């Protein structure tokens, strides 16, 4: 049963966190608070100014804010291990545990939650998989998919809901082609993988846990069958490339590691890019001068996207666990303390970014953000994510410069501690 093993992709039975003494304790802070979900920044600004490191009682995590503190944690990967980043935040119910206890459910920690020396060994192969040639091969597919989705939206007429029709299907289809999954399976793959963020980073009901666990198992079995088929008949895709590396040196990259990389990537590369493009539209469309500047000069788009990553990060937090007694920002941290690192607060640190709460596409140091993390686990998909967002926004400013948000809409966000992007976004345009 995978969750019993120390190298399991998701550890389902989690020991309680150690709690530091002598640091502020906050009984009110919760990333599930509707105000925080809607806009976490006013609370983060106040907390990081008043008590940058505190224990959040409701969450059971030590919250670390501010660029210096967050960087200290990310840099010291031996003291602050990433082994817990894929673990469910809250206990998993017995029925969902039973589903994930299937003998053949055994995905392994291979990237974000794997530790040294395995992490460096495996990352070498996954990093190679994101090579310039594969990105070049993928680029025309990203452009075609963007154009096809946009044509469908424009043909149907406005207003349209852009998350379900554009920002979500685009990165889903791109990551599936990158891996090598056949197009015919897109619909079921999106269904199986879409709710996993709630399982791991949210507060799902027992019923939701059971449904998601069933889909996780189905998806894992699909990944195994797919890898087996590529093993027999290789193609020009990431799965075949990883299998070729495995065949060349089976000790260096095992067969189950290949299966597990495929399993993890479909999530890592999908929802978050949808959030990124959704947040870009939410922030830029109402600032007409900024949108129009990009319509008139496509070279402004990369800088604008960096400012979105800084100002409204699609991943506002990440996690670590202390592997030994240590000290951070004047706080003694016992071994076993679970840590909630606030990337969102670091990206708005006034010591690094002047007027951090202002969205400024001309900001010269916007790219100093840590929206993609830092250090040995730095996001492998950063280049792909930027490319997808660049192509998506270029297509929109070129084909529908009159695009604007439908007035008076309330945005809502999936209740979870980490990933943030509008669940729905309605926009309209002038029909020609
Ligand atoms: C805007 C989009 C994205 C954001 C904001 C983002 C953010 C992050 C962050 C914060 C981390 C953790 C880094 C750390 O622990 O220091 C991470 C890791 C990772 N991301 Fe992304 N990501 C994005 C898109 C993607 C895409 C498109 C892919 C794949 C196609 C991807 C694959 C990964 C992988 C494999 C890791 C683990 C790397 C490792 O542990 O060595 N990400 N990402």
Structural overview:
With 432 residues, the chain is of the alpha+beta class. The chain has a single domain, classed as Cytochrome p450 (Orthogonal Bundle). It has helices at 34-38, 41-50, 67-75, 94-99, 118-129, 132-156, 162-167, 169-179, 186-193, 196-201, 206-232, 238-248, 255-268, 271-284, 288-296, 301-311, 343-346, 382-399; strands spanning 25-26, 53-56, 61-64, 80-81, 160-161, 317-322, 326-328, 331-333, 338-342, 404-405, 426-428. Strands 1-2-3-9-6-4 form a six-stranded mixed β-sheet, with helices on both faces. Strand 2 and strand 3 (61-64) form a beta hairpin. Helix 6 (132-156) packs antiparallel against helix 8 (169-179) and helix 6 runs parallel beside helix 18 (382-399). It starts with 24 loop residues before the first strand and ends with a strand. The model has no long low-confidence stretch (mean pLDDT 94). The structure holds protoporphyrin IX containing FE (HEM). Protoporphyrin IX containing FE binds at residues 74, 82, 111-112, 123, 175, 265, 268-269, 272-273, 276, 314-315, 318, 371-375, 377-381, 384-385.
């Amino acid at each position: 049963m995978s969750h019993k093993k120390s190298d399991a992709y998701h550890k389902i039975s989690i020991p309680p966190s150690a709690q530091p003494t002598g640091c502020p304790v906050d009984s009110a802070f919760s990333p599930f608070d509707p105000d925080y979900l809607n806009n976490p920044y006013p609370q983060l600004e106040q907390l990081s100014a008043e008590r940058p490191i505190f224990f959040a009682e409701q969450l059971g995590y030590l919250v670390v804010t501010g660029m210096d503190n967050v960087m200290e944690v990310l840099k010291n990967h031996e003291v602050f291990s990433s082994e817990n980043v894929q673990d469910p935040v809250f206990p998993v119910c017995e029925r969902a545990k039973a589903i994930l206890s299937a003998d053949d459910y055994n995905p392994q920690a291979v990237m974000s939650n794997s530790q040294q020396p395995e992490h460096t060994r495996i990352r070498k192969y996954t990093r190679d998989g994101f090579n310039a040639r594969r990105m070049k091969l993928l680029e025309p597919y990203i452009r075609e998919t963007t154009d096809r989705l946009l044509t469908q939206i424009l043909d149907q007429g406005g207003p349209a809901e852009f998350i379900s029709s554009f920002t979500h299907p685009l990165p889903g289809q791109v990551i599936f082609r990158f891996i090598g999954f056949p197009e015919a399976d897109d619909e079921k793959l999106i269904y199986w993988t879409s709710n996993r963020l709630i399982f791991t980073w949210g507060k799902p009901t027992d019923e939701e846990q059971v449904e998601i666990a069933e889909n996780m198992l189905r998806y894992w079995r699909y990944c195994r069958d797919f890898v087996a088929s590529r093993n027999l008949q290789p193609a020009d895709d990431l799965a075949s490339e990883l299998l070729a590396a495995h065949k060349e040196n089976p000790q260096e990259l095992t067969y189950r590691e290949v299966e597990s990389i495929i399993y993890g990537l479909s999530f890592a590369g999908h929802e978050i890019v949808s959030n990124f493009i959704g947040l870009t539209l939410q922030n830029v469309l109402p600032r007409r001068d900024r949108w129009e500047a990009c319509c008139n000069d496509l070279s402004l788009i990369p800088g604008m996207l960096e400012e979105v990553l800084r100002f409204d990060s699609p991943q506002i937090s990440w996690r670590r666990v202390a592997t030994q007694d240590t000290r951070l920002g004047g706080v003694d941290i016992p071994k076993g303390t679970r840590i909630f690192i606030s990337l969102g607060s670091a990206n708005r640190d006034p010591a690094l970014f002047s007027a951090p709460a202002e969205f400024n596409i001309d900001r010269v140091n916007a790219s100093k953000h840590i929206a993609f993390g830092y250090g040995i686990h730095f996001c492998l998909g950063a280049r792909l994510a930027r490319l997808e967002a660049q192509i998506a926004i270029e297509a929109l400013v070129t084909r529908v410069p009159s695009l604007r948000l439908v007035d008076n809409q309330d945005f809502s966000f999936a209740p979870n501690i980490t990933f943030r992007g509008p669940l729905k976004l309605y926009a309209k345009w002038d029909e020609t």
